[in-house]
Write a structure and sequence with these properties.
Blueprint lengths: L3 E4 L6 E5 L13 H4 L4 E6 L17 H15 L4 E5 L2 H12 L4 E7 L8 H21 L1 H5 L13 H11 L4 H11 L16 E6 L6 H10 L3 E6 L5 H4 L1 H15 L2
Parallel strand pairs: 2-3, 2-4, 4-5, 5-6, 6-7
Antiparallel strand pairs: 1-3
Helix pairs in contact: 2-3, 4-7
């Protein structure tokens, strides 16, 4: 069983782009074209999202198992090293990937992600909520998924050229996969206490209008090795809300570290 992934046209090293919870490959529609000038974008859909299957085994949803599944893509491409970039939930995975496999990462970028830097108390809360609501979400299906606060249907600042295909993809999410991500991935995702061990150049492209992320960004600035931080006037969906700013920042970062 494999995740769905696609390579977009470009030149230079491969760049893996990992979407957020309840998002899909459509999240990167405004980014893959411009980024193709400096890299070859690879978009993936996580278990239960869009075109990817939803394994029944809960073990497949552990953060380390997901990292291994992402690394399978690199191996299939036949590349010893690549760039990785994650958004929200995806940022937790790409950070974990870079920490686990620095020898396979040229450099890595990420965006606002509470789950990537959550403390133990928040992780316990998510675990309790995820396990308690897992079966209920599976049985209730798409209508229940649509009520989740971070579902793209509730987003107020996404451009239509991204939001419309995101909503179309969201209608195909597999409830079991979404429930398992909530129960077995998000509560275990945090690398808060490991970021000092980062060994590859890193860039946080921060949407500064999401003020609840500010303490997490400050933790990263203070504790994460080899990190640059660039703030953009955008919210959580920084790569979609300010696609031009995001593309420029990431392209500059890639040029600096791909020579």
């Amino acid at each position: 069983m494999k995740m769905h992934w696609e390579v977009h046209p470009g030149t230079g090293p491969y760049l893996l782009l990992v979407h957020g919870f309840l998002m899909s490959r459509a999240q990167w529609l405004l980014n893959t074209g411009p980024l193709g000038n400096v890299c070859r974008p690879v978009v993936v859909e996580l278990w239960g999202h869009g075109r990817s299957p939803a394994p029944e085994d809960p073990a497949a949803y552990s953060p380390d198992a997901l990292v291994a599944a992402l690394d399978d893509i690199r191996a299939e491409l036949g590349e010893p090293k690549w760039l990785v970039c994650g958004y929200s939930l995806g940022a937790g995975l790409t950070l974990r990937y870079a920490l686990a496999h620095p020898e396979r990462v040229i450099a890595h970028a990420w965006t606002n992600s509470t789950s990537a830097l959550a403390d133990e108390a928040q992780q316990r809360t998510w675990q309790e909520q995820g396990l308690a609501g897992r079966q209920r979400l599976i049985e209730a299906g798409i209508p229940a998924i649509e009520r989740i606060a971070v579902h793209p249907r509730h987003a107020k600042h996404l451009p239509d050229e991204v939001k419309v295909p995101l909503l179309a993809d969201a209608s195909t999410h597999t409830p079991r996969g979404i429930a398992n991500i909530m129960a077995f991935t998000t509560p275990e995702l945090s690398v808060r206490d490991r970021v000092a061990d980062n060994r590859r150049p890193a860039l946080l492209i921060q949407g500064t209008r999401e003020t609840r992320f500010n303490p997490f960004a400050e933790h990263a600035r203070t504790h994460m090795a080899l990190l640059d931080v660039l703030g953009l006037e955008a919210g959580h969906g920084v790569n979609m809300e300010d696609a031009a700013g995001f593309n420029s920042a990431l392209a500059h970062f890639i040029r600096r570290h791909s020579v």
